[in-house]
Amino acid sequence: MDKPRYAIVLHAGAGESWIGDAASRKATESFLQSLVEQSKESLRAGRPAVDVVADAVAALEDYPDFNAGKGAAVNDDGFHEVKLFPGK
Hints:
This protein is mainly alpha-helical. The protein has one domain. The chain is built from 2 helices and 2 strands, in the order ααββ. The chain has helices at 22-44, 49-62, and strands at residues 73-74, 80-81. Strands 1-2 form a two-stranded antiparallel sheet. It is elongated. The mean pLDDT is 79.
C-alpha cells in the first residue's frame, strides 16, 4: 500500500496559555487525537480535503477548552480579552 500523501496538523493554542487541571488536559489531548483519527479516516474514504478541514475547524471551535471563534485570548480570570497595541 502506498503511503498517504497528506498531513494533518492541528494548532490548538500555545501551551503556556493552558487553563485547567491535569484531567482536563488529558481529555483535551484525547479529543485532539480523536479529531486527527477522524480526519484521517475521512481523507482515506475520499472526502474532499476542504470538507475535512472545515469539519476539524468546526470541532475545534465547538470544544469548550479552546477560545476559537471568540476573537480574543482567555486571560487568567477565564474571560476573553483583546489587547490592543498602539500602531498595530
